[in-house]
From TrEMBL:
Residues 108-127 are annotated as: Disordered. It is found in: Vacuole membrane. The chain crosses the membrane at residues 70-90, 133-155, 162-183, 195-214. Residues 108-126 have a biased composition (Basic and acidic residues). InterPro entries: Ccc1_fam. This is Vacuolar iron transporter. It is a multi-pass membrane protein. One of its GO terms (biological process) is intracellular manganese ion homeostasis. Pfam families: VIT1. The keyword Protease does not apply. The keyword Nuclease does not apply.
Amino acid sequence: MASNQTSLSDAKFSVPVSDVEQQAALGTETEDFDYSRRAQWLRAAVLGANDGLVSTASLMMGVGAVKQDIKVMILTGFAGLVAGACSMAIGEFVSVHSQLDIELAQMKREKQRKETEGKEEGEKESVTNPLQAAAASALAFSVGALVPLLAASFIREYKVRLGVVVAAVTLALMIFGWLGAVLGKAPVVRSSLRVLVGGWLAMAVTFGLTKLIGSSGL
């Protein structure tokens, strides 16, 4: 009788402890993988979108300072989108490919030192992908650049068009600044204000200098 009670008691304690340990271990592995990997890609995407937003909007505002034609403004923005996306993709591809070469060289040295198939497979899964990085950068830049383009596409009135572009870019800058702060674990208000003021300054400087040069007759 005593032996039966002891076995039942052992059974009651062994199952929950084992489940808890397994869930804790699984949760730890999931957190380590998801957060470290996704945060880097999401933050890079936010920065790329912010770059596309500010550079394209600044180009459109600069041209809009001397040309009121909507077609000229849209074509300028579209050219900025294509050129910027291609530049981002090529730059990211070259940069990440250099990193990949370093990683492969390190893996080769590790392979010579340790001939372990399990470790070798793990390293192959963790190497960077230049094509994926290039596509992500181009896509993120294009998403940001589409904001001022879409905002200006359907407004003929010159002053209203400029105002709508500034308003749309301001809203997008606040969103991108908030996302970047959350993903980077930075102060939200301060980081958002930095992004917003930086975008405003870029548009204002481009608009002012282009207006000055255009009015001088150059």
